[in-house]
Design goal:
It contains three helices and no strands. It is mostly helical. The chain has a domain at about 40-65. The N and C termini lie far apart (about 65 Å).
Length: about 70
């Protein structure tokens, strides 16, 4: 019979529950890098303006709720 501590260590190494999250993070990073390489530089000011407008709208809605 295996000692308790050895069984606990073996069980801990066999646990792979966080593996999916790491894979999703890697895929998301790859998509972000690929999108940055594919989009032409002419779209970047438009995207920046879109995020600025979203920030303004979200800030305004957050201050109205108080």
């Amino acid at each position: 019979m295996m000692p308790y501590w050895k069984a606990a260590v073996m069980k801990w190494f066999a646990n792979q529950s966080g593996q999916d999250m790491v894979e999703y993070a890697l895929v998301a990073g790859f998509v972000a890098v690929a999108a940055g390489a594919i989009f032409p530089a002419t779209l970047l000011p438009d995207i920046s303006m879109l995020y600025s407008r979203l920030d303004i709208y979200l800030s305004a809605s957050a201050s109205q709720g108080s």
